[in-house]
Amino acid sequence: MTAAATNNMNLQDMKVYPEHECTYRFLGLAAALLLAFSLGLTAMMVRDNVVAEQFNRLMQSVYEFSAKRGLFVEDVIVEGNYRTSYDDLITALNLSENESILGIDIDKLQQQIEQLTWVRRCVVRRSFFPNNILVHIEERQVQAVWQYEGRYYPVDTEGNVIEVEDYEPDTPVLVLTGEGAPQHLTELVKVLNTDEELASRVKAAVYVSNRRWNLIFDSVNHGVTVKLPEKKFAEAYQKIALLNKRQGIFKRKLTSLDVRYRNKVIVDIDKTAEDLMLTR
């Protein structure tokens, strides 16, 4: 009797309840599916790599065959390159002799050319009969020159500094000084262009303490300095434009105008002109 009871107790202890059995089955099924998915994915990758390699070999043979039958790059024709040399473009394209015109990667060629210093963007196309590569370039346009650490760097219309060894502007452009000036050029030009007549007289712009502008009118070395506020400098510029139209302030012998204050304008008069007036 005791032995039978003991046997029954052991069997009950070893029994797996239905709710536990479902959990184990679910986990086992999930593990099996995950393993099957991993094996299938691996098989597909191996297969795709093999197929891709075979396809690439086939296409390479087609390109080589077409080049031998006359479909190779004969010439590269470039448009729009004013500052970018033809030799630099050819180096960037990196085309081999008798390269198949069918096998070249147009997107890759465009990316290589757009790495050149003066190139803003470009479009590359094939031209068959004759077999030429056509390259149309849009170069960066210089908006200003930035004087920094004894050198002058051209700055494009988007405020990007163009890294070149030597630069001489073809026409007079705005001179920038001050840390961070190029990065704020676009905003400044937008404000200046609200009065184009006045903007044409701005010869230099100094970005002071990385927070506000001083504008120099008429002459870089002997012009009138206008001190703009850090905030709402567009309104201050409009105030200057209004004063110039109504009172012709830039016709007077001034050295500086300070419009950083809301309700007043501080004017400094040229001392030589003041002394001349007193001696009369």
Could you characterize what this model shows?
It contains eight helices and eleven strands. It has helices spanning 2-14, 18-68, 86-93, 106-113, 185-192, 196-199, 233-247, 271-278, and strands at residues 75-79, 119-127, 132-139, 142-148, 151-156, 174-177, 202-208, 212-217, 224-227, 254-258, 266-269. The protein is an alpha/beta fold. It has three domains: 2-68; 75-139, Ubiquitin-like (UB roll); 142-278, 3-Layer(aba) Sandwich (Rossmann fold), CATH 3.40.50. It is elongated and about 80 Å long. The termini are far apart. An eight-stranded mixed beta sheet has the order 5-4-6-7-8-9-10-11. A three-stranded mixed beta sheet has the order 1-3-2. Helix content is 41%, strand content 23%.
Keywords:
single chain; 280 residues; alpha/beta; Ubiquitin-like (UB roll); Rossmann fold; 3 domains; eight-stranded mixed β-sheet; three-stranded mixed β-sheet; 8 helices; disordered N terminus
Instruction: Note the total helix count.
Output: 8
What's the architecture of the largest domain in CATH terms?
3-Layer(aba) Sandwich
Radius of gyration: 37 Å
CA(first)-CA(last) distance: 141 Å
Q: Structural class from helices and strands?
A: alpha/beta
Tell me the number of structural domains.
3
Question: How many beta strands in the DSSP annotation?
Answer: 11
Provide the helix percentage: 40-55%
Strand content: 15-25%
Name the CATH class of the largest domain.
Answer: Alpha Beta
Order of strands side by side in the largest beta sheet? 5-4-6-7-8-9-10-11
How would the global form be characterised?
A: elongated
Spell out the helices and strands N to C. HHEHHEEEEEHHEEEHEEH
**What's the CATH superfamily of the largest domain, by name?**
Cell division protein FtsQ/DivIB
